[in-house]
Specification:
By secondary structure, this protein is an alpha+beta fold. The protein folds into three domains: 94 residues, no CATH class; 154 residues, Periplasmic binding protein-like II (D-Maltodextrin-Binding Protein, domain 2), CATH 3.40.190; 193 residues, Periplasmic binding protein-like II (D-Maltodextrin-Binding Protein, domain 2). Helix content is 40%, strand content 17%. The protein contains 19 helices and 18 strands. Strands 7, 8, 9, 10, 11, 12, 13, 16, 17 and 18 form a ten-stranded mixed beta sheet that branches. A two-stranded antiparallel sheet has the order 1-2. Helix 3 links the parallel strand 7 and strand 8. Helix 18 packs antiparallel against helix 19. The N and C termini lie far apart (88 Å).
């Protein structure tokens, strides 16, 4: 018995000396024989007697040496439900977790009315099980309130650590300096996970400010199978079919929201046009813009396959009523047409004259990070959280659970190649459309370009402005609007 106790004491003291010496330079362990006092010492925790046992289940008795009571640390850790770990490389003992707990505030803006927000709780729960040291506190806000509160809070050095929001916010936040540049926060291997086009589309001036994790919408060509058996691949084919469908009883070959630039931007991209150059300057006075204006004009006045006027409600109503063969509309409309009992198909928006596919803007949900984060531990926690959310498994869980955007897509390459996408004919076509599309430019000036295009195209469609005159007028208006709101 004395031999066993002496061995235990020697081990305990030797380890204690190792620990103390390790803190001063990793000196070699020192062993020494001591005289200790065993006096049937008992340990109570919150009034409950603790039965001290070693890892083999043997009873262990505390002892005293030089007025100090020594108790096995591992056994006490078990009593207080705290793991005790020994790191031989650094001669360190860790009580509880090896790293300190970090709390991250996470803001999301999913539509509460759909119930889709609850999937975040399930995902956060699975994350916490894997990373118990990172505590996620989720808050919900509407898109508008989230945008304004983020701007105000971050400007004062506060706000959530991570935000999930529409990609549209990137331009606004970067202009205001309220978002962190992320190129150095994540490794190249992390960015290589994503479809190259998607991650490149999300950059602003070649820099990364947002991580796209879900593609939530895109325009596509939708056709009524009652009138159309096979979708056209070119606009010339579409015009030909549409002429055969258009009649004097109020049926049209093609309808779409001709009042909003978002719906005819695909033609501009197909003709090779863009809103901005690489430096963020407007490029609206272009040959592509002239071709777009002429194409729109011809649909009404030359081919006569579209209504005289059509906003979203008019176009949508005509298609649902069976009075249009084609409509250019978003993925959000699929459920509405299903509920209406329509037999419809979807396809890419056809190639414009000249052989290039139309280039619609697609919308994404992204993660962005608070630029006020400076300490390494919090940055590491943010990185871990966002990397976890962008694994194929979690991205697929998000898109499957998002009831607000029923036909959304992941952005991770492996998730896009998953059967969830590839064996779903609707999602497969949506992905084919996005593959030739582009994200809405993450510039604050995008909305000003739209504001400039809208009245000028209305004048073109009212035959008040000639198509060839439109580009210069649009460019001038966009610059004036930008200057009046944001200055030079």
């Amino acid at each position: 018995m004395k031999r066993e106790l002496k061995g235990f004491i020697m081990g305990a003291i030797a380890m204690a000396l190792i620990f103390s010496l390790a803190l001063t330079g990793f000196a070699a362990p020192v062993y020494k024989t001591i005289t200790a006092t065993f006096n049937n010492i008992k340990i109570y925790a919150d009034g409950t007697l603790i039965q001290l046992k070693d890892s083999k289940g043997n009873n262990i008795e505390p002892f005293m040496y030089n007025g100090i009571t020594y108790v096995p640390l591992e056994t006490m850790g078990q009593a207080f439900k705290k793991p005790v770990q020994w790191d031989s490389k650094t001669n360190s003992i860790y009580i509880g977790n090896k790293t300190k707990a970090i709390t991250l505030n996470f803001s999301e803006s999913d539509d509460l009315t759909s119930g889709s927000h609850s999937f975040w709780d399930d995902i956060i729960k699975s994350f916490s099980a894997k990373y118990p040291n990172i505590i996620i506190k989720r808050t919900h806000a509407t898109v508008e309130s989230q945008r304004s509160s983020w701007q105000n809070q971050v400007a004062y050095g506060e706000g959530p650590h991570v935000i999930s929001c529409p990609q549209d916010n990137v331009g606004l936040f970067t202009t205001a300096g309220t978002v962190m540049q992320l190129d150095s926060l994540f490794s190249k291997s992390f960015y290589d996970r994503f479809d190259k086009k998607i991650i490149n589309d999300s950059k602003l001036d070649g820099k990364t400010y947002a991580i796209p994790y879900e593609i939530i919408q895109s325009l596509v060509l939708i056709y009524n199978k009652r009138f159309v058996k096979e979708p056209p691949k070119t606009m010339d084919e579409l015009v030909k079919v549409s002429k055969s469908l258009t009649n004097s009883q109020g049926r049209y070959g093609l309808v779409f929201n001709m009042a909003e630039p978002y719906f005819y931007i695909p033609f501009l991209g197909g003709f090779g046009g863009q809103i901005f150059d690489s430096k963020g300057n407007f490029t609206l006075n272009s040959e592509a813009m002239k071709k777009t204006a002429q194409f729109m004009y011809d649909l009404k006045f030359k081919h006569k396959i579209v209504p005289k006027e059509a906003n979203y409600d008019i176009a949508n109503g005509l298609f649902k009523d069976g009075r249009a063969g084609f409509i250019i509309n978003g993925t959000w409309a699929f459920e509405e047409y299903k509920d209406a009992g329509m037999n419809f198909g979807i396809a890419k928006i056809p190639q414009v004259p000249g052989g290039k596919w139309s280039v619609p803007f697609y919308g994404s949900k992204v993660f962005m990070v608070n630029p006020n984060i400076t300490d390494t531990d919090t940055k590491n926690a943010v990185r871990t959280f966002i990397e976890y959310l962008n694994t194929p498994e979690i991205q697929l869980r998000i898109v499957a659970a998002d009831k607000t955007h029923a036909f959304s897509l992941p952005t991770h390459k492996d998730a896009l190649n998953n059967a969830y996408v590839q064996k779903n004919p609707t999602l497969k076509v949506v992905w084919e459309q996005i593959s030739v599309g582009t994200t809405m430019p993450p510039h604050a000036g995008t909305i000003f370009a739209f504001d400039a295009m809208k009245p000028v195209f209305k004048d073109v469609m009212d035959a008040k402005v000639k198509p060839e005159q439109a580009p210069a007028i649009i460019q001038k208006k966009a610059i004036e609007i930008y200057a009046s709101i944001l200055g030079n």
